[in-house]
Amino acid sequence: MEKIFIVVPNWNGADLIASCLDSLMAQTRKAEIVVVDNGSTDESVAIVASRYPAIHLTTLPYNTGFAGGVNAGIRYALEQGAEAVALFNNDAQASPDWLKHLAHALEARPSYGITTGKLLSADKKSIDSTGDFYTSWGLPYPRGRGELATNRYDDDTDVFGASGGASLYRAKMLSEIGLFDEDFFAYYEDVDLSFRAQLAGWKVLYVPAAEAYHLQGATSSGVKGFTTYQTFKNFPLLFWKNVPLRLLPGILVRFKIAYFAIFFSSIRKRRAWPAIKGFLRMLTLFPKKLGQRWHIQKSRKVSVDYINSIIVHDLPPNAHRLRKLRSFFIRHD
Fold first, then answer.
1. What is the DSSP letter of 146?
2. Which pLDDT belongs to residue 327?
3. What pLDDT, in 10s, does the model give residues 174-193?
4. In this structure, how many other beta carbons lie within 10 angstroms of the beta carbon of residue 97?
5. Is-contact 197 114, C-beta < 8 A?
6. Can you give the pLDDT at residue 216?
7. Which of 261, 275, 262, 271 lies closest to 229 in space, CA to CA?
8. Who contacts 113 (Cβ-Cβ below 8 Å, separation ≥6)?
9. Phi, psi of 231 (to 5 degrees)
10. What pTM was computed for the model?
């Protein structure tokens, strides 16, 4: 695997982009770096153009979200003959051997389409993600988020999915299953792609030696209601596109409970309007996603039993209120 590209999406990351790119330029496994600017209004483009002339810079006229931004970079990389494409957040930094470990693991396993590493907080004290998982409640979650950074997740192991913020994707797999779904814009588009990869028979490997450090939410935290809107739009899209028919009824019942419980929580936190807008936008996209579902499920190469085996049959670990709600109904059953 000789030709590897690293795609960095950027939106108003002038305060972050230099440290990110410095860490990628220092990688022991060399790769061509591509920055895709999503219509920034700060000095991001000037910083990349002036300080990093060796980096390929693509500028988009407006913000196409994480999915649109990385897709533009991935398409460029594939046109250049890339054998694998890494994605990396502009608010993160990579350890020097990050790409080397991901690439070595992917090269050694032809049936794997994605390798992902240990993503820690920027101060390296806690975990951001050690792989993504999907649950029987229709809710995805990053394994280990918020836990202290210990050696608990220090073994190479198969995981359900990979964080789009610091993972390596095989070009052959991307050509087969397609790129990121731009209707997601941001949040859970990486779980969607991982789900599609699993359905198509491509596995995902967690490689803990590949460490990166993430300043979580640095890009989106300044946009009020953004996360709530994207969550209520994208959770159902992820569910309807990817869950096999035989698993739909059981997961759907639990998903409805979880979805509306999260909605009432949003009302309590005065985020009702972004939640409603996300739900309404989801409804407009629903017919399109049903069409995509037909193609995804028709091309499925693994058994439903396999998919069922890699789904976590429980709530996400941090779903504390939902656990209390579930316990209430169990006690009163």
1. T
2. 81
3. 999 999 999 999 999 999 99
4. 16
5. yes
6. 73
7. 275
8. 169, 170, 172, 173, 197, 202, 203, 204
9. -65, -50
10. 0.96
Q: Which residues of the chain have pLDDT under 50?
A: 332-333
Q: Residue 83: CB partners within 8 Å, gap ≥ 6?
A: 1, 2, 3, 4, 170, 171, 172
Element of type H or E holding 117: strand 112-121
Cα distances (angstroms) measured from residue 310 to each of 36, 153, 161, 198, 316: 33, 17, 10, 9, 14
| Pick from 205, 196, 7, 8: nearest CA to 116 | 205
How many angstroms separate the CA atoms of 292 and 150, rounded? 40
- The dihedral of CA 167, 168, 173, 177: what is its sign? positive
Q: What integer pLDDT is reported at residue 2 of this predicted model?
A: 87
> Which of 152, 185, 23, 169 has its CA nearest to residue 90?
23
DSSP-derived secondary structure letter, 138: S
For helices 272-298 and 248-268, angle between their N-to-C axes, nearest 10 degrees: 160
- What's the token pair of residue 275? 């939640």
Closest alpha carbon to 294 in 239, 235, 241, 233: 241
At 47, list the tokens: 């910083």
Directed axis angle between helix 189-199 and helix 226-242, to 10°?
10
Beta bridge partners of 127: 120
Give the C-alpha separation, 180 to 188, whole Å: 10
- CA angle at residue 163 from 160 to 20, to 5 degrees? 160
The rounded distance, in Å, linking the Cα atoms of 284 and 304 is 29
* Angstrom distance (rounded) from CA 24 to CA 1: 18
Q: Are 324 and 267 in contact (CB under 8 A)?
A: no
